[in-house]
């Protein structure tokens, strides 16, 4: 226990964030209390608040943790392919794998967006979605320049639909209580998306 109590501040903050994300995978974020977080970590609430000035600061740190890691994960996946449509698929699969590893992430992000008033954490979620959308648009624009997309495709709608496909898989996995199974369902979901945007979507096999 003494080792856990004397962790450096940065490590204690990161472990707090990881505990929050883990707990969000098991229970509703709206009902998650600082007492529950502290018990999960084996510390007092007072010890928790030595590293975070408020509960809102904990949520903000958790969203920032997710944003940094998910963008790094999908960015690295996209950079591994020179073909923009293949890069989109790599992003899709990398995003799904991240969710499978951290099933509390979707609940965390959606929980923040449901707040009746703007918060630092909800603003970070919206910033993350906008950064993600811009990354998608860049790949879709490149695919369009290469003639890989069907004529007249609305790129904004295509970027939104990409995110919607991921969210749809997440919702199915939550209903089925099988987040790990999202990985198995992801390739078929992306193939449907690809069919909807590709240049030959209107004909052929």
Question: Summary?
Answer:
The protein contains 10 helices and no strands. It has 205 residues and is an all-alpha fold. This is TetR family transcriptional regulator.
Low-confidence stretches: none
**What would CATH call the homologous superfamily of the domain at 55-197?**
Tetracycline Repressor, domain 2
Order of helices and strands: HHHHHHHHHH
CATH class of the domain at 55-197: Mainly Alpha
- The CATH architecture of the domain at 55-197 is Orthogonal Bundle
Structural class: mainly alpha
> Would you count the extended β strands for me?
0
Q: Output mean pLDDT.
A: 89
Q: Which percent band covers the strand fraction?
A: under 5%
Largest sheet: none
Helix share of residues? over 70%
Outline type:
elongated
Distance between the termini: 62 Å
Counting H and I runs of at least 4 residues, what is the number of helices?
10
Using only CA atoms, what is the Rg? 19 Å
CATH topology of the domain at 55-197: Tetracycline Repressor, domain 2
Keywords: DNA-binding, Transcription, Transcription regulation
GO molecular function: DNA-binding transcription factor activity; transcription cis-regulatory region binding
Protein name: TetR family transcriptional regulator
Domain HTH tetR-type: 10-70
